[in-house]
From TrEMBL:
Name the UniProt record assigns to this protein: Beta sliding clamp
Self-association and partners: Forms a ring-shaped head-to-tail homodimer around DNA.
Function: Confers DNA tethering and processivity to DNA polymerases and other proteins. Acts as a clamp, forming a ring around DNA (a reaction catalyzed by the clamp-loading complex) which diffuses in an ATP-independent manner freely and bidirectionally along dsDNA. Initially characterized for its ability to contact the catalytic subunit of DNA polymerase III (Pol III), a complex, multichain enzyme responsible for most of the replicative synthesis in bacteria; Pol III exhibits 3'-5' exonuclease proofreading activity.
Keyword hit for Protein biosynthesis: no
Keyword Heme in record: no
Domain called DNA polymerase III beta sliding clamp C-terminal: residue spans: 251-370
Source taxon at top rank: Bacteria
Cellular localization per UniProt: Cytoplasm
Length: 374
């Protein structure tokens, strides 16, 4: 087998598919990038058993065949090289499935081991729901929710983002039990009834890196166990989380009687500064009249901080405590310059949302308060 290409072209394809390979794996089946030569096309494939990524690139070849190369070895070599034409020549050892890849560039000669393989037989899946999404919209849905996913393996459903698909609308939801995000956007699709799937957060983090073109196709299989994303010449297939997602709507308050309107950057910067003075990472927010106070203290070191910000507020004075990092993350994922904070009491969930919602879109970020010592 022999083919020629450029370092940059191969590096781009290998980098994309290698994202399916975990940093640490004890199963050697998932160590390799699988290369298939056929009809002048090189197809690269990698998987960890749950996620698989396929990428294609044109090469100069008249040969066909299938080999596997250790992903880390191939990726490290390509990363270390400058962009130049490169030729791969693969020779098989006698009476063995093992072989050697001889790599030639304008300045060097290299060789790495490989494994000759039979062509993988993929299980064909039937996808009965297909969504064509603008990349910017999908990226926005992911970016605004994936940060709130749980990392607790005891609650697997919450380690992903819930997507609810219904006629003319898609909703993404993420929660870790302490905060919750719900983001809605309009779409054009015909479905008979609302569909719900939970996509692992790792899959969505990979899609954020792969989705670089104008449109992305998102397909869901008829058994609701697999999702497929197609971004130009890259295909990602992944297993969905099948555990039922918690009833998130039950925790979203509907009777808030207090509302704060303030500037996002002002409160975001203030929380970052004041939060550094807390011994346990918590801050207190006190609102009275048109003044919003942010306070924190470290009694062990004799440190404290307080900042006063202007706001619009007409309710009774209130003092409420938060985890500073949760508030920072919530504010970082709101785009509008003016935000609204809706609350009821020091012990009920607080909602952060843009001051003005975009037409046919909605974003709310719910954060649970913490107990404070007055």
């Amino acid at each position: 087998m022999r083919f020629s290409s450029t370092i940059r072209q191969l590096q781009d394809a290998v980098t994309k598919v290698s994202q399916a390979i975990p940093a640490k794996t004890i199963d050697p089946r998932y160590d390799n990038v699988h290369l298939t030569l056929e009809n002048g096309m090189l197809t690269l494939y990698a998987t960890d058993g749950e996620i698989s990524i396929t990428a294609k690139c044109e090469v100069e070849t008249a040969d066909s065949g299938n080999i596997g190369i250790k992903a880390r070895t191939l990726q490290d070599f390509l990363r270390s090289m400058y962009d130049t034409p490169v030729t791969f020549s693969i020779e098989r050892q006698e009476i063995s499935d093992h072989g050697t890849v001889f790599i030639a560039t304008d300045k060097g000669r290299y060789k790495i081991p490989c494994l000759f393989e039979s062509k993988a037989e993929k299980t064909e899946k039937t996808y009965d729901i297909v969504l064509d999404l603008k990349t910017a919209e999908l990226q926005d849905l992911i970016q605004k929710t994936v940060f709130a996913c749980s990392v607790d393996g005891m609650r697997p459903a919450m380690m992903g983002v819930l997507f609810e698909i219904e006629e003319n609308q898609i909703t993404s939801v993420a929660t870790d039990g302490h905060r919750l995000v719900r983001c809605r956007k309009p779409i054009t699709i015909q479905v008979e009834e609302k569909q719900k799937i939970v996509v692992p957060s790792r899959v969505l983090s990979i899609i954020q890196k792969l989705a670089q073109h104008e449109n992305v196709s998102m397909s869901i299989d008829e058994e609701r166990r697999t999702v497929c994303y197609i971004c130009n010449n890259v295909v990602l297939e992944a297993a969905l989380i099948v555990e039922p997602y918690p009833n998130y709507e039950a925790v979203i308050p509907v009777e808030h009687d207090k509302k704060i309107v303030t500037q996002r950057t002002d409160i975001y910067d203030s929380v970052k500064r004041v939060g550094r003075f807390s011994s346990i990472g918590d801050i207190k927010i006190e609102v009275s009249g048109e003044v919003l106070k942010i306070m924190a203290e470290n009694t062990n070191e004799g440190e404290s901080a307080q900042e006063d910000l202007p706001c619009s507020y007409s309710g009774d004075p209130i003092i409420i405590g938060f985890n500073a990092k949760f508030i920072e993350a919530a504010l970082a994922h709101l785009d509008e310059s003016e935000i609204t904070i809706e609350l009821k009491s020091p012990t009920t969930a607080v909602i952060f949302k843009p001051g003005i919602q975009k037409e046919n879109e909605e974003l709310i970020i719910l954060v649970m308060p913490v107990r404070i010592n007055n």
